[in-house]
Amino acid sequence: MTSTDLEAALADAEDAFQRKPEQPEVGLEYVTDPAVLQLRKACRLLDAASFLLARNGHYTVIIESSFVAIERSIQFYVEEKGYDVAGQRHTEVYDLGVRAGLFSRGVADRLKELWIENRSESYYRTGVAGEYRARTIHDLAVQLHDETVQLTRTQDCLCE
């Protein structure tokens, strides 16, 4: 990095993450329960993905948001059941879902394989996202999120 403009932008970003947000995201601003925070992050990710789907594009972002929403929804359920989820890697959350009784080992293995083969392919490697893939992973994320909300009977979901 030799550009002074780049270094200034980097310093601004570093500084921004050291400060308390001046205009925090609505719905997340006063949440102190870590499980509810994960649930509401999933709500926001699904809302953003739905918005992008309606605009017919940005499939890579939709796929990424949907996979992260799946993880956040599972994390919410696991934390609600009293399990510690600190420090897990992306695919470990599926094992925690089995341990907490959210789904079977077979479903966890399929979710994990879907993540490994497709999220990683779409985001990090040479895979190109498309509408059908984006819609189906978004539908899966919404279904899993809705079932998680129903199972826990939480009133903290921000989805409409």
Summarize the structure.
The protein is mostly helical and 160 residues long. 66% of the residues lie in helices and 0% in strands.
CATH H-level homologous superfamily name: Nucleotidyltransferases  domain 2
Instruction: Please bin the fraction of helical residues.
Output: 55-70%
Number of DSSP helices?
Answer: 6
Which class best fits the helix and strand makeup? mainly alpha
What's the overall geometry?
A: globular
Distance between the termini: 45 Å
CATH architecture: Up-down Bundle
Roughly what fraction of the amino acids lie in strands?
under 5%
Largest sheet, in brief, is: none
Number of strands: 0
Organism: Natrialba magadii (strain ATCC 43099 / DSM 3394 / CCM 3739 / CIP 104546 / IAM 13178 / JCM 8861 / NBRC 102185 / NCIMB 2190 / MS3)
Protein name: DUF8154 domain-containing protein
InterPro entries: DUF8154
Domain DUF8154: 1-159
Write up this protein.
Residues 1-159 form the DUF8154 domain. This is DUF8154 domain-containing protein. The protein is mainly α and 160 residues long. The chain has six helices and no strands. The termini are far apart.
